Amino acid sequence: NKREAMQKSECHGVVQLRNRKAGSCDQRTSSSMQIKHRTTVQQSNSSSSTSSPETARKVHPRPSDKLNPKTINPFGEQSRAPSAFAAIYSKGGIPCRLVHGSVKHRLQWECPPENLPFDPLLITLAEGLRETKHPYTFVSKEGFRELLLVQGALEKAVPLLPRLIPVLKAALVHMDDEVFARGLNALVQLSIVVGPSLNDHLKHLLTSLSKRLRDKKFKEPITSALQKLEQHGGNGSLIIIKSKIPTYCSIC
After folding, report:
1. d(C-alpha 208, C-alpha 196), whole Å
2. I want to staple 126 with a disulfide (CB 3.0 to 4.6 A). Which of 9, 15, 167, 216 is the partner?
3. CA gyration radius for the chain?
4. Rounded distance, CA 57 to CA 196, Å?
5. Domain boundaries, the chain
């Protein structure tokens, strides 16, 4: 009887052990199935979100999106604020407009340029010399030139020199070669008009010219400009030029 009782106890223990193993196995299986289910749901949600019309529109923007302000990237090129000159020009602050010709462009003034006040128009046009986009490049360059050609330009331009020179200097130190070239031409045009009156301000501009002289492609135009500055500025300009650019050779 004792032996039968021991056998039954051992059998009962084996059954319990098997049941615990089976239960543990069932728990692991159930847990594994739950993880797989969650993963499948997450993948399904992710797939549905990437394939939504809104996401597809972001990946492949439609042409009409450009007209929708909500789709414009706030950090994109479209949102960059226009320059001061561009803003003034777009609001009609420059009293002329560009006329496209078959051979060359020209400016059409709203009224004769000689009737226009130089302050602040001449300074605004000088600021536009730093523009790099059409039509601002042409309007500023040609407008500055034509305004200095009017009768009485000397009397109107001389009082503006203290404010005009820093603006021209900004064009002469610009990294863009075309901006520098426009600034150089504008300086020569101003020298032709105001003559020796420019001498007091010349030293502020010559450092920029001296640095650009190291570039072979600018050596000839800068030398020509210096000669014209000397021609219209007289002996006083020669002394200033030589003090900043000792290698300059006088034409006189």
Report:
1. 20
2. 167
3. 39
4. 64
5. 82-244
